[in-house]
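In the current project phase, the collection of sequences with tokenised folds has grown. A sample record is quoted in full directly below:
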Amino acid sequence: ASSTMQSVAPAEVFLHLDFANPPFGFMDMVLNGWGCDNLREGYFLICVRSVRQRDAPALRFPPKPQERNLRVAIAARIQATINILVEPTSAGSTRCAFQIIQPIPPFVPMWIVEYALTSCMANIFKGMAKVTQAIADGSQASKHVQLFRSAEYRGIRSWFSERLDRYLSELAESKHLAQQ
């Protein structure tokens, strides 16, 4: 489950993510994510960093999993650095690269690490593809489509669309000129 803790600007947000995987554990992350517009060079970057309470004292943090009375083997707040490179290649095609840097505690068995790297990451990418397709189709059942169409998302949609539309127009023009 995820929730927005605070929207700072059209391209910056604080998020809280919960990961429940009984009976192994319950983990969560508190993240600050922002978008870096570099469409002049053909891409934009989504940067996501773990945040500690001391880094954002005005923000109300949920209790850490290890502070909750959970009956699981592992309860922890995970720290991570995530970078997502998004490169629109045409009006209907985008290339993405995903990087995550996350310290692995020494007590975690190797089979769990291997499972997370193979199965979990594959599921994340399948989920991202499914959400992306639902957005492209304009599916009314998609909570993401509903969010993108909501009044609260209007500023973000406008900020992003303005940049992406300009870039795609320039990309189409440059491809057209290259073919002449």
Notes: Residues 128 and 143 are 13 Å apart (CA to CA). The chain has three helices and seven strands. The chain has a mean pLDDT of 81. The two ends are 50 Å apart (CA to CA).
